[in-house]
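[Automated response] Your request has been received and processed.

Submitted sequence:
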Amino acid sequence: MFVAFVKRTMFHSGMAASCLFVINGLGLGNSTRCHAVIEQLAAAGCHVHVLTSGNGLAYFEGKQCIESLHSMESFFYSKSGGNISGWATLKSIGPLAKLARAKRNSLEQLLDKVNPDVAVIDSEYAISPLRHRRTPIIAINNSEVVVTEFLKRRRQAKGVRSHFWLVEFSDYLFHRHYCDLVLSPFPVRTPTRHPKFRRIGLIVRPTVKEPAATASLEEALSPRQLRQVVFMLSGSVHATQINFNDRQFPFAVEVVGRSGESHGKVTFHGRQMNNTALLARADALVINGGYSALSESFAFRKPTFVLPVPGHAEQFVNASLASDLGLGFSVTEQDVLDRLLEMHRQDCWIGRKPMPPAFEINGDVEAAEAILAWARDGTYRRDWLVEPVRSPRIQAA
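Generated structure:
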């Protein structure tokens, strides 16, 4: 229905919309969620171009839903004492400013060729060429969620405060002041801090939706019924390191995102661009705290152990959300195996809270609706995003 409506609208306007996605390619999460939205846009006849870096370039290579793929430099977080640090990142302002100039040049050159009706950014900030041309800017970003949830838990936050105030809060202010609309994926409907931000359902890959719907209807397993646990570690440079040696596991362990020598019941799969089959087969998940990985865990409703990158405020919030909403547990790379095996020994999900009856997972459709509305007439219908229709839910078993 959505695709048919948009095609009729573009037919009457006499032209198809064009959209430029500017995506942070440091990890894979930004790319996978943008890909879900891009597929909706392409199905509606929108011409989509992508400007990205790093892992994003590898991910989008050969994707049929985009018309062109372009490269740029990538920003970075700095570390102090082995952890991400807001102060260390601030001290790197010189190299970051140089990167920003290079990124602006890449964007400026691409805009001369593409001239999109609307631009969508995901964790990218060198957007002045878009503002100079008055191109509508829509962001897919959860900084408003991070700010709201962090301030609820500020007393619990240790070792992430500098990163929150210098990076995450600045991220929220940037999007509030420089974007026309910010789409914030979230599993349940809650108010936002500012009217420029709109909550939408979680964005998950289309290949995840169907197996997630099936998996969510299956009876929940107890720890001793686990047959396969998938460790889906980050595709970024901040990936968690877990030592699987000298451990005896009573279930199969599948490790995605890291290479290694498989042994016993531990199998290493390295980096994979499509891990849906492994996720669907898993009885429990161990993931880093990236929001896209967490979103797909919410969709599958499987017990999940979340490993936030040390010093990273957003991942601290994501892990806290997983615990508060009954998805699973916040752990560290030092204690995750001990806690998992202890729960197996006791046959009890120790400390797990009840989950809500449903999570919203139709954010890709909602985002595409908003983007195409801007591309068509430079505005959007608030009722699409406040009380969205056709928003399927993953029901509890």
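Summary generated for your ticket: The chain has two domains: 2-204+361-389, 206-359. The radius of gyration is 21 Å.
If you did not submit this request, please reply to this message.
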